[in-house]
Amino acid sequence: MGLEQLSPNDTKGKIITCRAAVAYGAGEALVIEKVKVHPPQKKEVRIKILFTSICHTDLSAWLGENEAQRAYPRILGHEACGIVESVGEGVKDVNEGDYVVPLFNGECGHCKLCKCPHTNMCQHFGVNPMKKDMVADGATRFTTVDGGKPIYHFLNTSTFTEYTVVDSACVVKLSGLIDQHSLKKLTLLSCGVSTGVGAAWNTANVQSDATVAVFGLGAVGLAVAEGARARGASKIIGIDINPDKFIKAREMGVTDFINPKDEDKPVYEIIREMTGGGVDFSFECVGNADVLRNAFSSVHEGWGLTVILGIHTTPQMLPIHPMELFDGRRVIASVFGGFKGRSHLPLFAKQCLQGMVKLDGFITHELPFKEINKAFDLLVSGKSLRCLLHL
């Protein structure tokens, strides 16, 4: 269908049969098959997905790294952009034909958390990897073509499908801000770029001349670097065991590099020597307790801040003794970069399109939707930051 406007009279209120990439088991190849997508219920939105991409969170879920989060069959995916096909009763913020980005971390706008300026959490629609159905009735909007058996949802979004249904709290309108050419780039705002840049801007509030260490140079880590670069950081140290990532990282603002495999002493010692006592900010983007320990140890006593972005799938606890925090160092986690999706993303999208954040460099591959398993392979092998899939 491309990027043309939908005619809501064609499908509104009807079950849509379309292609989806369905996960049937941990690590099993996704199956492209026909599924039924039911109409949106009260306060829900049905979206035609135009572009979607794969994040490490999708990879972790696909591999089933956390057994408690496994649910099959399931439609994964949470980075996308699309166009509203129809809306359910009571939806006022978006209309048929609007260009939108789905949000894995929703914003109802009414709960105690949404009204608090100090958090981007939401009591009702916040990120929840255990959630597998809709809030309205506890049912799914995806079913199998044969037998009508439920197919479970993922992270409030489920974007590996031509059509998806999300709660209205989990979608933000971008129409009026964009043209068709720029739409696909804004797919990245659903997760990776917003998470990384927001961690630098909102969570850490990196300022001009600050020193920064980024542990893990995947898409989120490079988004942190991009955010720090945009704020005028004087030194951005990138740490990764894959030296192939260093060329792209330099393009996105990283000034110095450390490959732990090439060093004889701990990374934090090297960083403290490079910076005269430690960096102002460190960002852990890997999801590994040993890496987190290095990140914490690399910040300066008195004011250093470590921001946790990596998804830690093991039961291991924080590798930090409470007394270490008495020297002024701090640790905080950041979800979706501190952005309140519906309130903040329209402005952030505008800033990105004005060139404040360079989105093009994050898209390293583009493939048709039917080659989604190849896109997973590219991510696993470390060859891609974001592979954009065209539906």
Automatic annotation (TrEMBL):
- Lineage, top-rank taxon, reads Eukaryota
Residues annotated as domain Alcohol dehydrogenase-like N-terminal: 42-174
| Alcohol dehydrogenase-like C-terminal domain residues | 219-338
Name the EC number(s). Answer: 1.1.1.1
Swiss-Prot/TrEMBL GO biological process terms: formaldehyde catabolic process
SUPFAM superfamilies tied to this protein? GroES-like, NAD(P)-binding Rossmann-fold domains
InterPro entries on file:
ADH-like_C, ADH-like_N, ADH_Zn_CS, GroES-like_sf, NAD(P)-bd_dom_sf
Q: Which Pfam families match?
A: ADH_N, ADH_zinc_N
Against Gene3D superfamilies, the record matches this protein to: Medium-chain alcohol dehydrogenases, catalytic domain (3.90.180.10), NAD(P)-binding Rossmann-like Domain (3.40.50.720)
Sorted alphabetically, the Gene Ontology cellular component annotations on this record are: cytosol
Q: Which UniProt keywords apply?
A: Metal-binding, NAD, Oxidoreductase, Zinc
Which molecular function term from Gene Ontology is one that the record holds? Answer: alcohol dehydrogenase (NAD+) activity
Swiss-Prot/TrEMBL catalytic activity: a secondary alcohol + NAD(+) = a ketone + NADH + H(+); a primary alcohol + NAD(+) = an aldehyde + NADH + H(+)
Which cofactors must be present for this protein to function?
Zn(2+)
Its family remark reads: Belongs to the zinc-containing alcohol dehydrogenase family. Class-III subfamily.
Quaternary state and interactors: Homodimer.
Q: What is this protein called?
A: alcohol dehydrogenase
- Please give the organism: Acacia crassicarpa
Q: What is the lineage of its organism?
A: Eukaryota, Viridiplantae, Streptophyta, Embryophyta, Tracheophyta
